[in-house]
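Researcher: Going back to the complex we discussed earlier. I've cleaned up the inputs and rechecked each line, so this should be the final set. Can you rerun the prediction on the complete assembly and write out the structure?
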Amino acid sequence: MVNQARGGIGLDSEKFDLKRILLSRLDRKLTLLFIIVALVAPSLAIYYFYIMAVSALPESIITNQSSLLQTAAIMIIILIAVDAGIVGFFVSRSITKPIKELYGATQEVEKGNFNVRADIKTHDEIGELGHAFNRTTAALGKMAKERKEIDSAKSEFLSITSHELRSPMTPMKAQLQMLQNEYFGKLTNAQKNSLNIVIRNADRLDKIIVDFLEISRIEAARLKFVFKETNLEEIIQETVDLMKGSAKEKNVKLKISMEKLPIIELDPDRVIQVLRNLIDNAIKFSKNKSTIEVNAVSERDHILLSVSDHGCGLTTENQMRVFEPFYQVEKTSCRKHGGTGLGLAICRGIVESQKGKIWVESTPDEGCTFHFTIPMKPVRDVEPIKVLFSQKDSIERKLKNAFQMALGPLGIGEFIELKNKNSLWKDDILEHIDSLTGQYILTPKQGEEFKTTINTIFGQEKEVINEE
Amino acid sequence: MKKILVVDDEPDIRESVKMILETRGYKVLTAIDGDDCLKKLKGDKPDLILLDIMMPGTPVTELVKQIKDVKIAFMSVVRISEARKKGLCTQDNIIDFIQKPFDVGDLIGRVELVLGE
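Model: Rerun complete. Updated structure for the full complex:
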């Protein structure tokens, strides 16, 4: 369907269109104008001259020399038109050259390159425009630089504070455990209970600090991946076996179904970290005596892992927000306990650091399935991923508006559907728009406009993502 | 009685580790940084050094080069990846990594294993 739509659009644009060819460029338009003026003006002049000559000169001269006069008139008109055309071409070139230069510079800015300057030396309005453009670009560049600095300061702050917070945890936990182990004498039951509460919360605090450290690594692209040839089947089996204990406590069964998986290069620790987190969540939310299924299939360029539970499921709104840091699902019967609220955000960070995707599908009251992908080829050049205070929210808001503008009320549904599939990526959306055009839901023109809007939204995002 | 030298710039950590190990019947000495550690080594040779990996003063990587005949276990609050561990194990006498905050039982277990008890 998508390909057909693309083919259709392609054929349309390949049709020969003289009007489009002549009028699509400023220089062509101006040259054409010069030629028309140069054809009309001498024609009129010669016509008047001819009328005057006929009335003033004796008739014999006119009739005798008519062919000569006609040839001379046509020659004059053609020569003037050619001259005017040439002059027009150069005049218009002098106007369009700086405009082209400016356009090229604008495209660079769109790509997030704020170091570009338009080199326009004319001393007219276009020259002024060029200067204004250069000043604006310089200001944008300064802002982008400042934002990068603030971002790295934030990550740095997060990292330092987390380390500083973690240091006191060592003696604190050691002393608490010694008390608990009755190194300093027997404890009463009340003292034991009190101590257990303190220890439980110290552990929880430590977990939050560890998660913050992990996030600061993801955001600064310092997350370390140690890749090695790995038998994913073994890894999945081991992880599931390890989780069986805590599943048993909740009377939940763990089931694996996987096909033959290729041996690929990956960081087993990171895969286990994500998988454990998802299974852990699934156990937390599972109904008593239900089953959790862990699936793995090998697809074209990635391996897809899924964890399905039969818990209370997630509403559409919650499906959209569950990967946000500290987002707790607002439903008392299903509120989770003991988590830091950062687990899924970290999973997203790890998966996206490897250019994979993570998303959830769910039917409320029936359960949910979390999916994530592992690329067949490891990504060694890890880029920073925003986990806290991400720009993603504001971009999503803009995308939602764009969908609504282009498709009306239908747009919101389409937006949510794409978002839940975690397909709010530029390429996915552009492909989706093509398929909408293919189904005649949008006209090719509307489709193109919609695509331009999407490109603009992602263009704005790019400079945020492109930080080094 | 086996002797253990605990090197950490944080007094509370030194004190806590000392208390834990003393209850298991070890003799525990402490040092506040790398230079202090070298000074203490001139006296009684311990059987094991528990060495904090990040301390002010002489970098730990330099310090360990001067310690050849005593077993060393690193303690670190920063999580050390497997790859980094390999980089740090430059000598045969570096035998373990202890993650801080540690579990008391785990710390005792590791020390006993290393000292062969």
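Model: Worth noting: The interface with chain B takes residues 163, 166-175, 177-178, 181, 183, 206, 210, 213, 224, 226, 269 of chain A (CB under 8 Å).
Researcher: Good, that matches what I expected from the previous run.
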